[in-house]
Design brief:
It is a single chain. The protein is mainly α. It is 53% helix and 0% strand. Helix 1 packs across helix 2. It is elongated, with a radius of gyration of 18 Å.
């Protein structure tokens, strides 16, 4: 099972990104702080990706599902039940809308 990237705050984001790249958190932060300034003609995501790709194994496939927890009544519920298709939660959605 892939880890859930929890971007609730700086600490949770740092922890999971370090886990994905199999490095410790201090190494992650140090490398980001020591990175050269991103040239204006470069795409920042590509530049950072390529810099990390030189030094660390970037997983070939990272399964990703975007979920915006602030759009729910209980943002932590997806950690308990997972992110479910609408068909599986439709009844509970209606129950929350009516109550």
């Amino acid at each position: 099972m892939n880890p859930i990237l929890d971007c609730t705050n700086f600490e949770t984001t740092k922890k999971l990104i370090a886990l994905i790249f199999n490095i410790n958190e201090n190494t992650l932060i140090s490398n980001l702080q020591n990175m050269d300034r991103i040239p204006e003609n470069e795409n920042p995501e590509d530049y950072i990706y390529e810099a990390f790709d030189k030094n660390y194994h970037i997983p070939d496939i990272i399964d990703c599902i975007y979920f915006h927890g602030t759009r729910t009544r209980n943002p932590k519920s997806f950690l308990e039940r997972g992110i479910l298709p609408k068909k599986l939660v439709e009844e509970s959605i209606w129950h929350e809308l009516i109550s």
